[in-house]
Amino acid sequence: MNQMSIDSNIKNNKKEKIIIFLLLQVMNILYSLDSVMIKMVSVRWEKNGLFSVSTLLLLTAAFAVLALYALLWQNILSRVDLTVAYMCKGMIIFWGMLWAFLFFKEKITLFNIIGTVIIFCGTYLVTTNE
């Protein structure tokens, strides 16, 4: 194998790892949004009852998002080690914090941000390095 072929394989491998990292983040977004939807279901359930149309529609949508997440998770597990996949689940903290702020007006502290940056850096390193 010549040097040019080796360099090309390394670049493609790095590119694939970055794509997998991004796909894992999309999955984390789906999973964290599902948690937001479930919280909204509980609010509607309390207000309108379980069998109201709005509660059932939102509950159905939440299950659909969770099903999509499960299918993507199975696909990603065929491409990466389980330890790498689980390490990326740590980023759910960031997405959950963002949704809590945007949807429920919850407070984000400086320590939340610093901790999230540390988690992001570690997740990126574990996912993209050998």
How would you describe the overall organization of this protein?
- This protein is mainly α.
- The protein has one domain (17-128).
- The chain has helices spanning 3-48, 53-77, 82-88, 92-104, 110-128.
- α1 (3-48) packs antiparallel against α2 (53-77).
- The longest helix has 46 residues, at 3-48.
- The two termini are 21 Å apart.
- Residues 2-10 have low confidence and may be disordered.
Topology, element by element:
Elements: H1 3-48, H2 53-77, H3 82-88, H4 92-104, H5 110-128
Helix pairs in contact: 1-2, 1-4, 3-5
Oligomer: single chain
Most strands sheet: none
Give the SSE string. Answer: HHHHH
Q: Structural class, from secondary structure content?
A: mainly alpha
Overall, the morphology is flat
Rg, rounded, reads: 19 Å
Report how far apart the termini are.
21 Å
Q: How much helical structure, as a percent, in the residues? A: over 70%
Q: How much strand content do the residues show?
A: under 5%
Q: Please tell me the total number of domains.
A: 1
Number of helices: 5
**Mean of residue pLDDT?**
84
- Number of E strands: 0
- Which stretches are poorly predicted, pLDDT < 50 over at least 5 residues? 2-10
What features would you highlight for this structure?
130 residues; mainly alpha; 5 helices; flat
Concise structural overview:
The chain is mainly α and 130 residues long. The protein has five helices and no strands. α1 (3-48) runs antiparallel to α2 (53-77), α1 packs parallel to α4 and α3 runs antiparallel to α5 (110-128).
